[in-house]
């Protein structure tokens, strides 16, 4: 009987010890689509966060006194309403850091909700680490102390794209098309404004929006693009909408460059294949081909060893994790949101995939190099989607739009 009691007691102590260790983990809530038409994009993003947390923090013994990162996925079905439900679930389960990127509509809902939560709940404040939602408003009129963006916003990307387009004298007519929500509208507005300033001779022969995630056949749009006589296309489409639009445009005979924000990975590269070679252009951060450094190559090799069918198509995810860990080390805490946010403000950091990063304190917009790459099967060290194709960097814009204006009026706690 004594041996049984002793066994029960030791088991209970072990359970409590394990529970205490588990509680020390820093929960990072990944709130993005894990089902539905954009599931491939969300799932690959989650894989990248999980690997980054392990490779950059956990496998190195954690931070501070051995604290480790635990990334937990929450399926928001690309819905702002569902995202708010998942946010509350995540907070109730102890998450104090939220990462999200797919849909600026979702990001706008989250940043408002987190701002309100933090005012009402000073003992459970949350930081929002935005890794891909690029509506410029998020670091302008809607900026807040709790939100940090690790991707370049739509205006920064368009500034880089239109610089390249302006140098191409063969482009006289452009068709702009995108998804009908805040991000798509921001892309269109920036394209029209910047092209007008840099190449007033270029004619915008089409400027339209389509429902996000609902168009099954993009052929009617593609035929309008071809019949317009456009020399080039600009689109901010992502996920299944990028694939559907791009394939329809190419299949209907369009031969000019298609300038995109998100035409790589998550099945898109493999689906384009040979048809996209030489026509698909991508504006992005982080240099994959050629690898920016031996460290970048080692990270990608390690990722593929764990996820053979995955892609590092968002290098900014690694920068998000690395800068969060560095901010915690600098602040000397893994729980004080105000101290960690303050440490992030103005931080400079060596990007894992090239270039120095700077988190601008005025609006929490990360300033970094931008790259314009081409979809090809030539000269690429790393391909996407287990295909023969990847994105090869053609040109680099150092510290893109570092002096871009912001209307942010940051209110700090």
From TrEMBL:
<dbReference type="InterPro" id="IPR028081">
    <property type="entry name" value="Leu-bd"/>
</dbReference>
<protein>
    <submittedName>
        <fullName>Branched-chain amino acid ABC transporter substrate-binding protein</fullName>
    </submittedName>
</protein>
<comment type="similarity">
    <text>Belongs to the leucine-binding protein family.</text>
</comment>
<dbReference type="InterPro" id="IPR051010">
    <property type="entry name" value="BCAA_transport"/>
</dbReference>
<dbReference type="GO" id="GO:0006865">
    <property type="term" value="P:amino acid transport"/>
</dbReference>
<dbReference type="Pfam" id="PF13458">
    <property type="entry name" value="Peripla_BP_6"/>
</dbReference>
<keyword id="KW-0732">Signal</keyword>
<feature type="domain" description="Leucine-binding protein">
    <location>
        <begin position="26"/>
        <end position="373"/>
    </location>
</feature>
<feature type="signal peptide">
    <location>
        <begin position="1"/>
        <end position="23"/>
    </location>
</feature>
<dbReference type="InterPro" id="IPR028082">
    <property type="entry name" value="Peripla_BP_I"/>
</dbReference>
<keyword id="KW-0029">Amino-acid transport</keyword>
<keyword id="KW-0813">Transport</keyword>
């Amino acid at each position: 009987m004594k041996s049984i009691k002793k066994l029960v007691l030791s088991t209970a102590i072990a359970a409590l010890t394990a529970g205490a260790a588990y509680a020390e983990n820093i929960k990072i809530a990944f709130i993005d689509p894990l089902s539905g038409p954009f599931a491939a994009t969300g799932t690959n993003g989650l894989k990248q966060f999980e690997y980054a947390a392990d490779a950059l923090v956990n496998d190195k013994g954690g931070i501070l006194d051995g604290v480790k990162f635990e990334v937990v996925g929450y399926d928001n079905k690309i819905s702002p309403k569902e995202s708010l439900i998942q946010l509350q679930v995540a907070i109730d389960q102890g998450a104090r850091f939220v990462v999200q990127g797919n849909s600026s509509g979702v990001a706008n809902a989250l940043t408002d909700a987190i701002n309100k939560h933090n005012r009402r709940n000073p003992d459970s404040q949350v930081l929002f680490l935005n890794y891909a939602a690029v509506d410029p408003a998020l670091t302008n009129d809607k900026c807040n102390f709790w939100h940090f963006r690790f991707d370049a916003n739509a205006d920064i990307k368009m500034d880089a794209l239109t610089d390249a387009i302006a140098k191409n004298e063969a482009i006289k007519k452009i068709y702009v098309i995108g998804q009908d929500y805040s991000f798509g509208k921001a892309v269109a507005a920036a394209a029209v404004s910047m092209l007008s300033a840099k190449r007033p001779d270029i004619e915008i022969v089409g400027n339209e929006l389509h429902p996000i995630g609902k168009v099954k056949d993009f052929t009617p749009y593609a035929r309008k693009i071809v019949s317009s006589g456009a020399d080039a296309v600009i689109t901010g489409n992502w996920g299944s909408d990028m694939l559907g639009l791009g394939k329809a445009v190419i299949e209907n005979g369009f031969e000019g460059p298609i300038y995109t924000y998100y035409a790589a990975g998550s099945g898109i590269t493999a689906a384009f294949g040979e048809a996209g070679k030489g026509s698909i252009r991508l504006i992005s951060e982080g240099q994959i081909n050629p690898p920016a450094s031996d460290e970048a190559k080692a990270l990608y090799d390690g990722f593929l060893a764990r996820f053979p069918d995955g892609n590092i198509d968002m290098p900014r995810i690694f920068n998000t994790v690395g800068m969060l860990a560095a901010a915690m080390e600098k602040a000397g805490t893994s729980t004080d949101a105000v101290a960690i946010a303050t440490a992030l403000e103005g931080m400079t950091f060596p990007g894992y995939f090239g270039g120095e990063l700077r988190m601008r304190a005025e609006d929490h917009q990360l300033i970094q190099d931008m790259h314009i790459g081409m979809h090809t099967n030539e000269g690429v060290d790393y391909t996407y989607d287990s295909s023969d194709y990847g994105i090869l960097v053609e040109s680099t814009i150092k510290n893109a739009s570092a002096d871009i204006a912001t209307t942010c009026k940051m209110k700090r706690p």
